[in-house]
Structures are given as structure tokens and as C-alpha cells.
């Protein structure tokens, strides 16, 4: 699902006239697609989906279905963001509870990729900035979630 929403947002932004600024959004969708495909090749890959994951996936699919009904680029981008956010929630929760199970490298790369969108923006319209802003927020949230114990580590010193 992390591939579907950014790829739909990419095509919606292209339909609304966005050009190179949408490339990082495309990469944000294409990269998880590659990971998904690779997970079938890697024999050590492991997934464990729970009820909450299915609920978030269902909300994500609902957001995409609503977009298909409206066929409006701006609505598509809003619903693609909602769809992606629903899929991000389980990963955020997992990275908060079990930060050692996630790697910060992927999300740091995603953050920098998202930030490059802003260099390519020609017209600061909703269609051009909405998904990149969302991607910056979600990647920062994941990075902080994974690194929070290191960032906010309390240092106790013994006074002599």
C-alpha cells in the first residue's frame, strides 16, 4: 500500500500540470514497490499483519476508492495522503514500540528525497507541495520514533 498512494499522487500531480517536483513523490512510491517485490525473493523476509494493520489498509483502500469516484487531481492528492498516512500508522507504532526493528537509513533517504521536491517547485501550488510536505512530516516522524531513545537519552552523572 505504501507504493499505491504516492504513485497515484504522482499521476494526479502530473494531471494537474506538476513536472519535475513530483519526481521524489514517484520515488517514494517506487521504492517500497521494489522492497515489496524483493521480500518475495529474500527467504528471510517476515511479515506479521494484525487486525489494526488490516483496518489501516482498509481505510487506505477506501481513500483510494473515493479518489477514483471524484477524479479530481486535488482531491486525489488529499486522499492519496490520507491513504498513505493510514498505511504509515502501523509502521509508526511499530517503530515507537520496537525501534530496533526498523532502520533509520531508509527514512533518512526518504526525507532527503522529499526535501529535493522543494528545489524543483516552480509554482507553489497545493498540487506541487502537498505530498512532499506530507512525506517530510512522515519521514521525520519515523526517524524520531526510531531514534527517540538515543536522542532523548537521559545522562546521569554522579557528583563527587
General description of the model:
It is globular, with a radius of gyration of 17 Å. Helix 3 packs antiparallel against helix 4 (about 75-95). The protein has one domain (about 5-150). With about 160 residues, it is an all-alpha fold. The mean pLDDT is about 80. The chain has six helices and no strands. About 75% of the residues lie in helices and about 0% in strands. The longest helix is centred in the last third of the chain and has 26 residues, at about 125-150.
Quick overview of this protein structure:
With 160 residues, the chain is an all-alpha fold. The chain is built from six helices and no strands. The longest helix is centred in the last third of the chain and has 26 residues.
Amino acid at each position: 500500500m505504501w507504493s499505491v498512494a504516492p504513485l497515484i499522487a504522482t499521476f494526479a500531480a502530473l494531471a494537474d500540470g506538476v513536472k519535475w517536483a513530483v519526481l521524489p513523490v514517484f520515488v517514494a512510491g517506487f521504492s517500497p514497490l521494489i522492497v515489496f517485490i524483493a521480500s518475495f525473493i529474500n527467504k528471510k523476509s517476515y511479515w506479521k499483519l494484525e487486525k489494526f494493520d488490516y483496518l489501516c489498509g482498509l481505510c487506505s483502500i477506501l481513500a483510494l476508492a473515493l479518489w477514483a469516484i471524484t477524479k479530481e487531481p486535488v482531491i486525489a492528492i488529499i486522499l492519496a495522503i490520507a491513504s498513505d498516512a493510514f498505511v504509515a500508522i502501523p509502521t509508526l507504532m511499530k517503530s515507537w514500540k520496537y525501534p530496533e526493528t526498523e532502520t533509520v537509513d531508509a527514512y533518512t533517504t526518504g526525507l532527503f528525497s522529499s526535501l529535493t521536491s522543494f528545489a524543483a517547485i516552480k509554482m507553489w501550488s497545493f498540487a506541487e507541495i502537498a505530498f512532499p510536505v506530507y512525506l517530510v512530516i512522515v519521514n521525520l516522524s519515523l526517524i524520531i520514533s526510531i531514534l527517540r531513545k538515543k536522542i532523548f537519552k537521559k545522562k546521569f552523572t554522579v557528583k563527587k
